[in-house]
């Protein structure tokens, strides 16, 4: 599994993170698990213009995310994602990438930290 943070450049040359992409290896998404955690501190960074859309991916919704109590790992409710894709007529086994909006990721991680202080 590889994590990549895609960022854009603001008019003042400030870098703004936009998406976190989780690319799965050849085994794909571990759909047999109920959930999946990723270390959000271990990622490479790329410009948003370097985003390659030749991989079959899906957006992950805010309500499908959660975090560990320390707010260091981002969790994915695989059952919810799988069921949403199936109900939309998509084959979840074809998914090779999850795409998360950084603002959603930050919100989930901050809430977890505040809840478990």
Topology overview:
Blueprint: E1 2-9, E2 15-23, E3 35-39, E4 44-47, E5 57-59, E6 65-67, E7 73-77, H1 78-87, E8 97-101, H2 102-115
Parallel strand pairs: 1-4, 5-8
Antiparallel strand pairs: 1-2, 2-8, 3-7, 6-7
Report on the structure:
The protein is an alpha/beta fold and 117 residues long. It has one domain. Helices cover 21% and strands 36% of the residues. The strands form 2 sheets. A 5-stranded mixed β-sheet has the order 4-1-2-8-5. The chain has a 3-stranded antiparallel β-sheet with strand order 3-7-6. A hairpin with a 5-residue loop joins β1 and β2. The longest helix is centred in the C-terminal third of the chain and has 14 residues.
Question: Could you provide a short overview of the structure?
Answer:
The protein has two helices and eight strands; from the N terminus they run βββββββαβα.
Beta strands, count? 8
Mass-distribution shape: globular
Query: How would you classify the helix and strand content by structural class?
Result: alpha/beta
Quaternary state of the chains: single chain
Helical coverage, percent range: 10-25%
Low-pLDDT stretches are none
- The tally of structural domains comes to 1
- Biggest beta sheet summary: 5 strands, mixed
Radius of gyration: 14 Å
Percent of sequence in beta strands:
35-45%
Compressed to H and E, one letter per element, the order equals: EEEEEEEHEH
What is the topology, as strand order, of the major beta sheet? 4-1-2-8-5
End-to-end separation in angstroms reads 30 Å
- Mean pLDDT, nearest integer? 92
Number of helices: 2
């Amino acid at each position: 599994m590889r994590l990549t943070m895609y960022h854009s450049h603001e008019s003042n040359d400030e870098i703004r993170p936009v998406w976190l992409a989780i690319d799965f290896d050849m085994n794909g998404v571990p759909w047999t698990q109920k959930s999946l955690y990723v270390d959000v501190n271990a990622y490479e960074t790329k410009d948003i213009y370097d985003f390659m859309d030749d991989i079959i991916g899906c957006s992950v919704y805010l309500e499908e995310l959660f975090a560990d109590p320390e707010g260091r790992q981002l969790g994915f409710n695989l059952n919810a994602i799988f069921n949403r894709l199936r109900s939309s007529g998509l084959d979840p086994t074809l998914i090779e990438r999850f795409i998360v909006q950084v603002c959603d990721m930050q919100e989930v991680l901050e809430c977890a930290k505040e809840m478990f202080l």
